[in-house]
Design a protein that fits this description.
A hairpin with a 4-residue loop joins β26 and β27. Helix content is 7%, strand content 36%.
Length: 567
């Protein structure tokens, strides 16, 4: 009798579970590619590979939205930040929290299965920047997700059983994962969190069937690599460059666009130079992780401006010609439009209400034009006085993703209007995972009018603001737009709102009971349009920004689904 080795047996079991899972779901790579044009399903994070978060559905419109009402609500049974986007596939909704993965009947709200994530008891002691999970990827009956202890997991969509689980990094070194994976070019791609702890960022490519690591791309350049000379000696080893939000994918160009975050420490003079590839967009081949081109938004980055915000793909008229572009409303306060075939900078315009770290972007070099304050910060490791910087570490826009309406050619996003006082000091890296900033934070500075944020409509072709709806607290939710002329988002005080895409006028609001940091989606079943959003806020902003509007907002995560009531 032949005895199978344990490794062979495990591979055989994984294959059997994968084949069984594939029999459940009808979704394929084509379903991911066509997600934006198939309103019955939401198969991708961002409602398309290009993350436009826009729907062609029109049943809910400016005339009917007043009849929008909840049809079901399901508790997530935790009080963590509910910043996730559900998927809807073949009538089932799939939701990720940091502790569980759930399957829900999309129309009735009845829970089908709920699978716990096995986490170490001490994981919270090592977490850098929040307890949450932003979403899932799905293909051929398999769900893919990340976990806060830096693992990647494959799950059977039929019953929630684990197919494989792979360790991406050691959470005790400060690494974590909160983002949705990306399926692109037949590869599962993930990033990593932990930049504030002096980790070294990376992006990985994984085999969808087995979880085998196919490639690994560091995001801080070593001395023998291109860009290695942009770091002070050995600083790249602990240089940050986290990749904590999901990238986008152009299947025609076969390029994945992934944002890279802040350097570690934040003290730019201590790191030295541009510190490639912090605060950049990388265009990479999904099959190999090869960097085809890069563009650095904030070279050196002294202010934690990251570069990870969503990279939205669109076709825009440039000099009378339709051009493939990638767009980002960056935390540094500027809205960028790049040619996504080459990385050439096409436009860079200030969208934040106040920016004092740079006077603009040089269109010839692509580099920011430093103000005297920033020029001094770049070359001074230790300062004696605080400086007031706008935007703050929360950025002119934080991670909450925009939507893009390709018919109106408008982007809709939530902004932040807050300054900060900082003083830079030279700091050795802590021996254990802990914040490594190289500065003292002297507090935040609110605007004179008290309006700390706004929902903005932006024309990326002209680089102009079309309208804005200011608010006392910045919205921390994603944005959804529809062809019927509606823009949906949520507030940190709990309201889920619909606005007129033409004017920004608020048309409808519903109180969900907790702050909203979720990413709304819309879908249809049997000719009826539904809209879903997660409620439940526990944000770093609320904890640190001293916002008086958020003093008494209860925690508690849940899923809300809405539809039109009969007239």
């Amino acid at each position: 009798m032949t005895h199978l080795s344990q490794k062979t047996l495990m591979r055989s079991m994984t294959l059997c579970l994968t084949l069984a899972a594939a029999a459940v779901g009808a979704q394929s790579l084509d379903s991911l590619k066509n997600d934006a044009s198939t309103p019955g399903d939401v198969t991708t994070y961002g409602m398309s590979w290009g993350q436009q978060r826009h729907s062609a559905l029109k049943q809910v419109n400016a005339s009917t939205v007043k009849r929008l009402a909840p049809v079901w609500n399901l508790s997530l049974d935790n009080s963590a930040n509910a910043s996730s986007q559900p998927l809807v596939i073949d009538g089932t909704m799939y939701v990720a929290s940091h502790t569980h993965t759930l399957a829900i009947d999309a129309v009735s709200g009845k829970q089908k299965w709920k699978t716990p994530i096995e986490l170490p008891a001490d994981v919270n002691a090592y977490l850098c920047c929040g307890t949450q999970s932003r979403g899932l990827a799905a293909l051929d009956g398999v769900l893919y997700r990340t976990t806060i202890d830096a693992h990647v997991v494959a799950i059977n969509m039929k019953d929630g059983k684990q197919i494989w689980k792979i360790k991406a990094a050691d959470y005790k070194q400060g690494y974590s994962m909160t983002h949705a994976p990306l399926i692109a070019g037949g590869m599962l791609i993930t990033g990593i969190s932990g930049g504030e702890y002096g980790t070294r960022g990376f992006i990985n490519g994984w085999d969808l069937k087995t979880g085998e690591k196919k490639w690994h791309r560091w995001t801080t350049a070593a001395p023998d690599e291109k860009g290695g000379d942009t770091w002070n000696p050995d600083m790249y080893k602990t240089g940050g460059g986290p990749t904590w939000l999901t990238g986008t994918y152009d299947p025609e160009l076969d390029l994945v666009y992934w944002g890279v975050g802040n350097g570690a420490p934040w003290n730019a003079a201590q790191r030295g130079g541009d510190s490639l590839y912090v605060d950049s967009v990388l265009a990479i081949r999904p099959s190999s992780g090869e960097i085809v081109w890069h563009y650095q938004f904030s070279p050196g980055d002294a202010y934690d401006y990251d570069g990870v915000n969503e990279l939205v793909l669109a076709d825009l008229p440039v000099n009378g010609k339709s051009t493939k572009v990638v767009m980002q409303a960056n935390r540094n306060g500027f809205f960028y439009v790049l040619d996504r075939t080459s990385g050439k900078l096409l436009k860079a315009d200030q969208f934040a209400r106040k920016v004092n770290w740079a006077s603009g972007i040089d269109m010839k070099t692509g580099r920011p034009i430093d103000t005297p304050m920033t020029a001094a910060v770049r070359k001074t490791e230790t300062q004696t006085d605080f400086v007031e910087v706008w935007p703050s570490v929360f950025g002119g826009k934080n991670w909450m993703p925009m939507s893009y309406d390709p018919g109106r050619k408008l982007a809709f996003f939530n902004t932040v209007n807050l300054g900060m006082k900082v003083k830079y000091v030279k700091q050795a890296k802590p021996p254990a995972p802990a914040w490594w900033l190289g500065l003292e934070l002297g507090g935040f500075v609110a605007p004179e009018d008290g309006m700390r944020g706004a929902l903005v409509a932006w024309d990326p072709t002209t680089g102009k603001k079309v309208w804005e709806m200011p608010s006392k607290s910045p919205n921390w939710a994603g944005v959804l737009s529809t062809a019927s002329g509606l823009v949906f988002t949520g507030t940190q005080t709990g309201q889920f709102k619909a606005h007129d895409a033409k004017t920004g006028k608020e048309l409808w609001s519903f109180q969900t009971g907790s702050g909203i940091t979720g990413l709304p989606i819309t879908w249809e079943s049997n000719g009826k349009q539904y809209i879903t959003v997660l409620s439940g806020a526990a944000t770093v902003y609320a904890a640190l920004a001293g916002d008086p509007e958020l003093a008494n907002i209860p925690a508690g995560g849940s899923v809300w689904t809405f539809a039109l009531q009969q007239p």
